[in-house]
Design a protein that fits this description.
298 residues; alpha+beta; Uridine Diphospho-n-acetylenolpyruvylglucosamine Reductase, domain 3; Enolase-like, domain 1; 3 domains; four-stranded antiparallel beta sheet; 11 helices; globular
Length: 298
């Protein structure tokens, strides 16, 4: 099928793009790679009178470190993230998660900002951002603001961004040398959307106990979700302690997963606990490697 008729613009400056969005309101839509948006438009699942292509705005494709925080421009492609040495050193979870996203042809065009703003419940980047306590840079013609990622995601394909706003950057704080990360997912085929996915970030204290922890599930509901019950159980615990699997199962039992043609709600609930337990077991082992001064396992 073909999309409904629309006007197209490709500004080279951020201010120009913001002005177009403000002018056209709900009729305008940013194009940030288009790997999901174009498909939805072709199927007439989405219609917009004005597409604003962001690919020519160079300032949105920068990766840098600022006071221990990794800052990734919204138009940075997934392929760039997968290869970038700064990302490799600072945020191994982001890099590892990128390898799960579709196939290299998709990653050549797909962007981190486009993925987050699309808010697919099965998207790896939404889960990673929530796991790492990411902060988002939001711009409009009226100025800029920062927003915790948890306040961006509402439910499937819906965010708190207004039509006049753009997500322009992602800020990922450092978790320190004694931190480890892990992500795993279940899909029908490599590169398919996750039926169930789990990510974990764990920081160990000097005594070897868990000092800080985030565990996030994705693909099981209308948005990525932290398992706060499991996090509370793990904080202050020995990462090698028995009972992690039971605690993960108990946390997963509180879920009310979605059911669709890909998987039943029962399947997603049953798989969520073991998958969460696996990433919780893996992350501390990588934290020990990092504490010895080597790069974490991937």
């Amino acid at each position: 099928m073909k999309p409904a008729a629309f006007e197209y613009s490709a500004p080279v400056e951020l201010d120009e793009a913001l002005a177009i969005l403000r002018q056209h309101g709900d009729e305008a839509k940013p194009l940030a790679g288009g790997q999901s948006l174009v498909a939805m438009m072709n199927l007439r699942m989405a219609r917009f009178g004005q597409l604003v292509d962001l690919r020519r705005i160079r300032e949105l494709r920068v990766i840098s470190e600022q006071d221990g925080t990794l800052v990734v421009g919204a138009m940075t492609t997934q392929a760039t993230i997968e290869r970038d040495e700064v990302v490799y050193r600072h945020s191994p979870l982001l890099r590892e998660a990128t390898g799960y996203i579709a196939h290299f042809q998709i990653r050549n065009r797909g962007t981190i900002g486009g993925s987050l703003a699309h808010a697919d419940p099965a998207a790896e980047y939404c889960a990673v951002a929530l796991t790492l306590d990411a902060e988002l840079e939001i711009a409009s013609s009226g100025g800029r603001r920062r927003l915790p990622v948890d306040e961006l995601l509402r439910f499937a394909y819906v965010t708190t961004l207004t039509p006049a706003e753009l997500l322009v950057g992602v800020r990922l704080p450092s978790w320190g040398a004694r931190s480890g990360f892990a992500i795993e997912e279940i899909a029908r085929r490599r590169g398919d959307f996750a039926l169930v996915g789990a990510a974990a970030a764990i920081a160990l204290g000097l005594t070897g106990l868990i000092e800080r922890v985030r565990v996030v599930l994705f693909g099981v509901g209308p948005r990525a979700r932290r398992l706060t019950q499991l996090e509370d159980t793990l904080t202050g615990a020995d990462p090698d302690a028995l009972g992690i699997e039971a605690a993960a199962d108990a946390a997963a039992a509180t879920l009310d997963p979605i059911a669709d043609v890909q998987a039943t709600a029962h399947y997603r609930r049953r798989m969520a606990g073991p998958l969460a337990a696996r990433v919780v077991r893996t992350a501390p082992a990588r934290a020990c490697v990092n504490a010895d001064g080597a790069a974490g396992a991937r």
